[in-house]
Amino acid sequence: MDKLGELPRYYPHGEQSDCIEGEYHEGMDESQKDSVTWRAVKRQVKGRFDNIDHALEMTLHKDINYLYGDYFAAPLMFNSQWGDGELLQVWNDNDFDYLQQNLIGHLMMKQKLKQPATWFIGVLGEGDQMLVVNNEDGSVWIEIPGDEPQIKLADTLDAFISVLTPRVCPPQLVVEESMASIDHPGIWQRFKIMWQNLLGKR
């Protein structure tokens, strides 16, 4: 915000959120049309993951509540020693439900492959590298879908986030021919494409 002189912008594809501070409409610069300015806002009711614990008969690492349960926000772009990336955030209650559904799918895939449980926090670069947390000890890793975590980045989520630098960039409007089948913009689309590619190989 200090560098831009304004709040960050995001394309929510019509999804409402308590984060929204202002919208851009007709008459504005074409590149800004339909984008919104946003600010992270504390949730009135914290998000919980008890249903996943119960459904999969496991206990998720406490840091998942710290990352996803307290605030609504748009995805956060960052620079790091490992390259550019994007941290997943929860935009609204529907987004939180979507997160839980995809997290269950990811954890079930890990069980099927007999691999250690991880949960995703973002993506790195433009490829198929996921940023994940090892559910056993809370360490942060790079993971390729279908494989076990490959490169350890930090011992804890706090330690990982502390070495990231926010990346100032214009909002990116995601437009794909298959958007209807993806049913969610941005970082989720990239996750789903990764998983579809994985399923096609198995």
The CATH topology comes to SMI1/KNR4-like
Count of folded domains = 1
Structural class: alpha+beta
Q: Which ranges are low-confidence, i.e. pLDDT below 50, for 5 or more consecutive residues?
A: 176-182, 197-202
**Beta-strand level of the residues, as a percent range?**
15-25%
Largest sheet: 7 strands, antiparallel
CATH class: Alpha Beta
Q: Give the termini separation.
A: 44 Å
Your description of this structure?
InterPro entries: Syd (IPR009948), Syd_sf (IPR038228). It holds the Pfam family Syd. Keywords: Cell inner membrane, Cell membrane, Membrane. This is Protein Syd. This protein has 202 residues and is α+β, with helices and mostly antiparallel strands. The protein has a single domain (45-201), classed as Syd protein (SMI1/KNR4-like, 3-Layer(aba) Sandwich). The protein has six helices and twelve strands. The protein has helices at residues 50-56, 63-68, 93-112, 157-162, 179-182, 187-201; strands spanning 9-10, 20-23, 36-38, 41-42, 71-72, 76-79, 85-87, 118-124, 129-134, 140-143, 151-154, 165-166. It has a seven-stranded antiparallel beta sheet. Strands 1-3-2 form a three-stranded antiparallel beta sheet, with no helix packed on it. A two-stranded antiparallel ribbon has the order 4-5. A hairpin with a 5-residue loop joins strand 6 (76-79) and strand 7. The longest helix has 20 residues, at 93-112. The relative contact order is 0.15. The model is unreliable at 176-182 and 197-202 (pLDDT under 50).
